[in-house]
């Protein structure tokens, strides 16, 4: 059951397929778009024609020398032009808003939901974090990913319609002008395609540079990192790292820009040839009396609009391809497999709510994705309902990994985990986790109010009395009562200027209050007292013992103070159970547990 990570070499969605996906999502969210889009396209096509016609008719009216007719013509044409422009601007604004909220309300919402509900390893593994980062960047603005695909799709439709209609007129004027413009466009497009291919080939290099830049920027403004930066005088080192990233970005940009010099130069040269040919042919017709000055102006305007569209086509396609690549970054994350979550939530199995579960590991093993050797091997043990177990061992023994398996965050890669005799993979994961109160060692409180962190529910569902009781049992109520806004005080100043920062010990007490408030009948505490002094630790463990009454409980700690009130102790060594029994049994065994206990005991005695 190893997790499948997206292979970056797997076939990606084509541009056409991505266009179909975004347009379908757009119309589904805003059905009125089916009427607005054609109207918008028509106005986009008519506006430049009306502008050229206005100039042409004005010159024609002046040539006739009829002021009244000139005035009437100008008023009518200006009115039509401004109405068309106004409708175009209004529709453009409406459609822009629809594209924005399709990006946010559909694709960003899907990404957000996926990030919150996908298998935990899909967001914890470093390579998946990169995939998530790139997918998130694809939704970060108007000119990225799906929104840019929508925008450029409309632009290309306008261009193709303009080329078709205006090109027909130009062909009737003189096919040589049309042929010349198309030939010049083909030459320019060849140079642009080479530049685009080079950019596509080196996209990952660009992403890697930006990831490093963002990491350095984030750490330079991080409060925790700020201590080390100042104490260890890391300022110059950070400057060196940033300068290196900036240099790499500059070198990369130069290589990209060099490839775009050729299409830029060719574009200027071809525009000159186009204008020279068009002026020569049309001026010749005026001299020969085939067309008048007004018609000359109209034809010249049409040729200019046609040329702008056909030359803009390559830029539109370039932007569309780039946006489609970014959209595929979004799908790279969305397509990460949810093996464990899907198995759990699709099953019909259930567990009695609010009861202490019995947990059995049968030949359980676990190997992290990409690891050379397993973290856990052939674990066999049972935690009986209402029993308190201590997991102890050195760093890297596999204690925290067991917690991830117990809480359903990771699926075991070998063996079977049973809950009340039924496979964990057949249970409703949501209901199973609803019965767990857990305190992880690396959890950071969210930048919300203290009571919101404790209750972890919507504000209207918070039980104020239970919040106070939980804070009191966790030993944090005195601190909370000293604050002006008490339990409504926010943590950090990210969301509230009057927010506070908690110490390491206070943070652990807050997380303990969170576990107390939930009151699950399966209690898991992973290094719950690492930031506390021995006296505070002793008091907290007394509270843990009270909390654990009638519950199935697992305590993980480097310190062995937690073992004195546990029913059994499991000593882990290199992913295996080295010793298992009561405190007295393991002390009589005279193994590694006794050795660690005596080493720690002498420090407390001294």
In short, what is this structure?
The chain is 64% helix and 9% strand.
Structure description:
The chain is an alpha/beta fold and 606 residues long. Helices cover 64% and strands 9% of the residues. It has 21 helices and ten strands. A six-stranded mixed beta sheet has the order 6-7-8-3-9-10, sandwiched between helices. Strand 9 (568-573) and strand 10 form a beta hairpin. Helix 1 (15-29) packs across helix 6 (145-173). The longest helix is centred in the middle third of the chain and has 53 residues, at 235-287. 30% of the residues are buried.
Structural classification? alpha/beta
The residue ranges in which pLDDT falls below 50 over 5 or more consecutive positions are: 1-9, 342-346
Overall pLDDT:
80
Distance between termini? Answer: 49 Å
Give the biggest sheet. Answer: 6 strands, mixed
How big is the Rg? 34 Å
Strand content: 5-15%
Described by the principal axes of the CA atoms, the overall outline is elongated
Describe the strand arrangement of the main beta sheet, using strand numbers. 6-7-8-3-9-10
Tally of individual helices: 21
Helix content: 55-70%
Number of strands: 10
